[in-house]
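Technical note accompanying the year-one report. For the benefit of new consortium partners, we illustrate the data format agreed upon in the data management plan: each record pairs a sequence with a structure-token string. No post-processing was applied to the example shown here.
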Amino acid sequence: MSKEKEITTLDEILDSKYGVQGVPSREAWEQEFEAFKLGVLLEEARNKLGMTQEQLAEKCGTNKSYISRIENNASDIRLSTLMKIIQQGLGGHLKLSLEV
């Protein structure tokens, strides 16, 4: 048996556990994963700038617990708030992509 056959891809695991792309359970997982990635990206950017959650919150007019909830994927975030955090708080720019 070749080594390639022994490797299970992430898509195969997700297909098995949540169903193929397009089914509601898989779509829900993928949405949750994107929110998780957003929280990680914000936390990495904040850390790269040497800022605490409290400092970031002050710069963009929110509170530390809200920043923490976003970074830990425990809070939905409005696009306007996300833009304020990125632009005012982190001095960055948001780029989006859309797949259909």
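Partners are asked to follow this layout when depositing records. The radius of gyration is 17 Å.
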